[in-house]
Amino acid sequence: MSGLRIGVDLGGTKIEAIALDTDGRELLRRRVATPQGDYPGTLRAVAALVAAVENDIGRRGTVGVGIPGEESLASGLIKNANSTCLIGQPLRSDLDALLRREVRLANDANCFALSEACDGAGRDAEVVFGVILGTGVGGGIVVRGHVLTGANAIAGEWGHNPLQLPGADDLPLPACYCGRSGCIETYLSGPALTRDHALSSGEEDLSPAAIDARAAAGDPACEATLRRYEDRLGRALAGIINILDPQVIVLGGGLSNLGRLYRNLPACCGPHVFSDVFCTQILPPVHGDSSGVRGAAWLWD
Questions:
Q1: Is residue 1 scored above 60 in pLDDT?
Q2: What pLDDT digit, counting tens, does each position of 23-52 carry?
Q3: Are 133 and 35 part of one and the same domain?
Q4: Residues 276, 145: one domain?
Q5: pLDDT tier for residue 83 given thresholds of 50, 70 and 90
Q6: I need a surface site. Which of 78, 133, 136, 208 has the fewest CB within 10 A?
Q7: Could you tell me if 128 and 273 lie in one domain?
Q8: Is the pLDDT of residue 290 over 80?
Q9: Is residue 244 included in any domain, yes or no?
Q10: Could you tell me the pTM of the whole model?
Q11: Closest C-alpha among 66, 67, 10, 72 to residue 41
């Protein structure tokens, strides 16, 4: 190949492609709507995007694809995907055939973590944990510049572990779509924050951004909601720190835009970390919403 890296973010509503030069410089990007519920149409859309990028640049490149799910190590088929038309499909081999080259796949949270580890907030860190706090809660682990996949291809999937040390404010344990109760995702996703505020204050359907704005303006109910959220996130991240001890945790997803998290989380994590010091940096992403698609391109680093 020519040193050109092409990354594709295969999302539920849009498919985005980016082209990076050898030094990580962005050359161009394109996006199209995701064909809803149409697996063959999705394949064609990805292939057309890659062809358009290569035609515009005039070079052939490597291709990495970030997906909202995982590739089964046993069957090679897609599992656990929010885009349900991908489930049970041989996505990687189909893309290999369409694009006439090897394609690398990774979970979109892993791509986010990889991007920030390569040339973002976690640059030069030995271990980076990338967190997605959005519609769901996901994560990815990068060790010495390489994504950690794991024996079951679920490394970093912390959202379906139970929230540590539940107290009175955390009860009753919320039911999760996975069939369990009390999962981290049921407390720390964007919808979970909105739901928690409604339960505590009676105010329905306030977005996380609206709750944050009202807390900043002195609303005590919104401030209390965010303090509960920060306490829960601190406990959950402390569990990760006690196992991985990453130098850097990078927050992504819509809730990563809450600036107060970076000020308040160290004090929320610290008491639950098995150490006499707290040195982990908790940082916003350098590349923002572009990080996942950049990480897909970096799968060929």
A1: no
A2: 889 999 999 999 999 999 999 999 999 999
A3: no
A4: yes
A5: confident
A6: 136
A7: yes
A8: no
A9: yes
A10: 0.88
A11: 10
CA-to-CA separations, 23 to 20, 72, 118, in angstroms, rounded: 8, 32, 11
Instruction: Tell me: do 159 and 255 sit in the same domain.
Output: yes
CATH number of residue 19's parent domain: 3.30.420.40
* Average pLDDT value over all residues in the chain: 94
Rg (CA), the chain: 20
Q: Give the residue-averaged pLDDT of 157-177.
A: 94
Residues 218 and 72 in one domain: no
Domain with 169, as residue range(s), is 121-285
Q: State the total domains in the chain.
A: 2
